[in-house]
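Risk register update: the risk that structure generation would not scale has been downgraded. Supporting records follow, first protein first.
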Amino acid sequence: MEQLYGRISQWVKDHRQAIVGLTADLVRYNTVNLVTDGTERDCQLFVARTLKGMGLDTNVYSPEEAPGFRTHPAYFPGKDYSARPNVAGRWKGNGTGKSLLFSSHIDTAVVAPGWPGSPWEAYESEGKLFGLGAFDMKGGLAASVMAVRCLIELGLEPAGDVIVESVVDEEFGGANGTLAGRLMGYRADAAIIPEPTNLAICPATRGGALWRLVFRGKTGLAFSGEKLVNPLYDAGKFLVFLERYERERAGKAGPLPWYGSASELPIIPTRAAAGDLQAELCDVGPEVCELDVWVECYPGVTEEQLKQELIDGYRAMFGEEAAVPEFRKMIRFLPGSQVPPEFPLLGVLKDESAAVTGKEPNVQGAPFACDAFMFNLHSPAPAVVLGPAGANAHAAGEYVEIDSLLQLTEIYARTIVNWCGATPKE
């Protein structure tokens, strides 16, 4: 086995440019998620050609083709998939080993301000590959593809099936593409989601909700004693509460076993709007103030519990008479999810990560929400998150660290050998 691991390591070193090049090729496609629509099609066809060229049994399909797609309880309405295909490639095993699925999303967040040039022109500098989606999460997708290519070119055959999928519409709480993959029958004994974790092994992910909080008031000038209410004051109070509440939550440990140490649990006001923004000036207060807020939570917390937590905390600070806003749901609620400590894939990933990096990996709950819940709550395949190192996800200057990309490719290849089993092809 050590001889095989040595060959895998050498292959990765010899194919550095191919691994980086595939990531750069993926970045060059504009795959921005437009919330109700998207631009993933051309990139997905490129992924399909890549997988097919490696000899994988490859399928390009619309999420709408998945049986029971729109009637599934995890389906979120209001999306257009007319030109947004999923892609899956299966490296068929001989039926004697466990199966493994790598699930990546191909869509990216919107282009943040501050990019010095085109965010789709990937470039390498100081050991980093820059570009929109390089870190979240085209680098992880490339690593999974190249891990399979590595083993194929080394003349191996897996004992269990290995599936590589690229799904659409994960950003902004989409996850319908991930649901479609499960309904199409792409299932396995375990799944790895290559979201960016800085090479930490994450058996759990947070949940989160994006609400538009609507505060209402009464406008005008009180020339005749009218009672006026300016909703900006109520929104301001709510912001004061959110800032304090975020600090209080950051000082508390989360649930065991994966969130047992105190860590930041973000509450992010993302947008505020009030008044007539088309007018040159306004001489009265607004009737309505809207405040968009993203709030994260731990696994096991429901959407209603999270909402009530905010209302109770707000009233505790400002009194029972404090004006409670209307909560409008902007995207699906993303529930947190987790796998148990005894899940066998965790041991495999820890061993292979330590062997490749030379140090014990961090095993912790992910500091973000993602589509892992579609596996852990809506499929028989438990999912663990493990992806490359980098920075500036959803921001200008996003990059993936190239050394981590190479290490991840090697970790994935060794994991396939250990989990699925692999022997020389006859």
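Supporting record for the second protein:
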Amino acid sequence: MSQLEALLCWLGKRRIGWAAALIGMLLALPSVFTGLQTEDHYHYRAIRDGVVDPPWRINLFNYISGNVAGIYGLKDFRTGPWLTLKDYKVSFWRPLTSFTHWIDYHYFPSAPWVAHVQSLLWYGALILAAAALYRRLLSAPWLAALATLLYAIDDAHAHPVGWLANRNAILATLFGVTAIWAHDVWRRPSGASRGARTAAAIVAPLSLGVGLLCGEFAVGALGYLVAHALFLEPHGNTRLTNIAKRAAVLMPSLAAFGLWFYFYRKFGHGTYGTDFHLDPLADTGRFFVQALWRLPALIAGQLFGIDCEAWWRLPASVVYAMAGVVCVFVAAFLWWLRPTLRDSQARFWLVGALMATLPACAAMPQDRLLFFSGLGGMAIVALAVRQAIEQTRESATPRHILGRLVAFALLLMHGVVAPMTFPQ
């Protein structure tokens, strides 16, 4: 047994969740001293001036509502360029996250470090939730431990944890992961009592709804729920029964999403007139055109550690060429990973990660959009390491050697380099 295998076995014998949460929080600890940044000042002023006042006025993220008079006011005061569309809109519905900010700035207005500590605690809770999900949906304890540790130290999380205004992404992911976990307990009980299954069936859509009220980012959880229905839902007696069952088990979560989306639109939230935030339903064609390069950019950022924001500064022809190169590399990696992808759990993580990443293409690619992508991404990295170890014992063909080099390079990147750059 190699030293790496011994280390992984040692990890698998321990409940790594709490330790990983502590490590992740320690890596992000320097953010406690960064104070308020950019939109934090707007949130602080809105709360201190009474613009946001629970329980009725509780949304900090209605930046530009699309009101024509308001747009002309921005132009008159030179806070918006003259060419801004008259119905330009950037408005999000995040009442629960707004309430957490209200607590920070209402009760501790002179202590922004308290707000940062709250974000750290939410991040620790997210790591614990991810650990619980990995334990249920990865076959070996050391796989779950490795994926948890890699997720905790992912440097893509540094910005959203350290930026108070981006707390919504942490909260949305936390409750989204909880929804996936509860859905799995409901559909694959693994010894759970009837009462526990019933409770999980209720918790799953409720948790998704809470996540959506924290931030629309929680819609990424639906990607994993659909993947769960496709690959992990117990089979029925006939093909028609299988299809009906898989559709039916998604109904509670889809109902929660539908209810949230109804009020999201009813209250006038959404975006218009900006490429930075596209509305996938109102501007579907443009969304899919942009997704042709945004999706590869996000995948490259998660899997290979390439800075997502670097793509913005490149000409369109270069961006689409780079997207093609990334697709070739990912396809080659997945071709090597075929033995692992025969397993339904591996396919769940892969397809779930891809489907969860697609909604993030509505925004310009940024590392802070990778919370849901990383959830499946770190599981795939752990599974790739397992396949590389197994092939080391079995064969030494050029294809296998190259695959092992890639797998161990990913482990080096996410397990060694990432924590070194996290505090930055």
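Residues 357 and 373 are 6 Å apart (CA to CA). On this basis the risk owner (M.S.) recommends closing the item.
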